[in-house]
Amino acid sequence: MDSNKSIPESLNELNEHELYGKFQEFLRDPYTIQKEILFDILNHGKSSEFGIKHSFKDIKSIEEFQKNVPVSEYSDYLDDIEKIKKGKEDILFNGKAHSIVVSSGTTGNMKYFPDSERGLIAKNLVMKLRSIQLALICPGLLDNPYILGITNSSDYGFSEGGIPMMAASGQGLNSYEDSHIKMVLPQELIQAKNISNENKDYLMALFTLASKNLTAVVCNNLAHFNFLLKEIKNNTLKMIDDLDNHSISLNIDPHLKEILISKFPDTKERVEELKKIYSKKGELKAEDIWPNFKTVGCWLSSSVGRCALDIKRNLSEDVDFLEWGYGASEGKFNVPFKANISAGPVSPFSSFFEFLPIDGGEIVTLDKVEEKKLYELIITSYSGLYRYNLHDIVLFKGKTLKTPNIEFECKASENTICNDIKIYANQFDHVLKQTEKDSNEFISFFQVIPSDDKKTISYLIEPSSNNDSSDFNKLRFKENLVKNLKNDLKLELNKLFIMKSGYRDSLFVKVVSPGKTITSTKLATVVSKDSILESYIKEIL
To answer: Which domains, from first to last, does the chain contain?
Structure first.
């Protein structure tokens, strides 16, 4: 590689075949490339204010790096981020910021993450590798790809210093600009801001319905695709009429309406197809209206993964589900290799990784992680985050070649104290999964509510809509839940709230801001009793 360029910049000059080959080379020796990545990052940050303060030029080992640079939080970067937003250079990394990622995170408070050119390239390389792997898992997918990519608007304007500001999902879309992939949704719709969530969902569903050649759906939270399927189900004749008349029967901005109508594909044959299917079957099912739809790329881990599994039960068995990858506004961290599996090998070139055991102990590097042990993820990135604790809890499951497979479990903040023991959201999920297995049931959505005295826990569950309510054996389910709570977490069950169908979706509607989508939204698992929507309570046991 060119010694004057960063490792991501050199990788970015490779064609897809060469890039994938190099990636596999990294996976065979991830620990060597991790050390190289760390010193490459330090080299491209040594002239910055942060690099000078922490003597980057004098660091000769991982141990010296860990001694010179303390573990950090977002609040540690606030002053430096403000300088970067004003256009100042050489603050957290050498040179000027390429862009600033805007994120509301899980707290709802806006966060700003500057990206260097090198950091952005590293993210986009991971996205490119995910697409290559997607094509390998699903041969023929990218021969003539029509992809529904559900994302938030990427455009947040400019900072006071003229730095472009965008959403992380917008960065992902930008990585496809020069590819042959055809996106079902026009950018004008994705970027539209002065439009209600209901109207935006209708229009997304309308454009998707118009595309017979849909091959894949890519989004973080597949619950949003489920919203679009419901839009099609509830507005079938209205949508067919809109496509037939090349019109949009919504009261939206006239200029936006004119632009979107101009983006409609030729729908004459499509309308006749849809009319025939509806006349024959009385509804438009996914397998009937999108015969080439075979792949979903989405989050499969954590609570969002439960949404994906629920929706999977309503799609054809021929549709493969691929974990779209673990990442955040701060970076992209793995490249999943197998369909229907949520873990994937760490991308060893994108950041330098460290891991803090949640049960105490020393911070370890990638070569020292243990399987089935929970850690908080700490990254050092090309974009000026140094030993930055994301407070994401992760787990390792096996290896791809010689690289550990990482899976996101939950945020460290998703916990409660019961009987003086800290219990995380993923532990409550594991109890529920065992209960589902014991009971031969599937739960679409759940939350837990600690009792006021922190001695017991209540579960709030929404049984799968696939089950007739009379088929759900609530007493057997409760019995197994009581047993598993006691065996796994030494906890007593307080109450079991059985919720009506649609409870989860009602929460998404409640928490999503106007003009946003639910694609990057995660619902809280640990909640208070005051947050329950009582109108959705069906029964309390």
So the answer is: 7-121+323-411 (no CATH), 139-293 (no CATH), 415-536 (3.30.300.30)
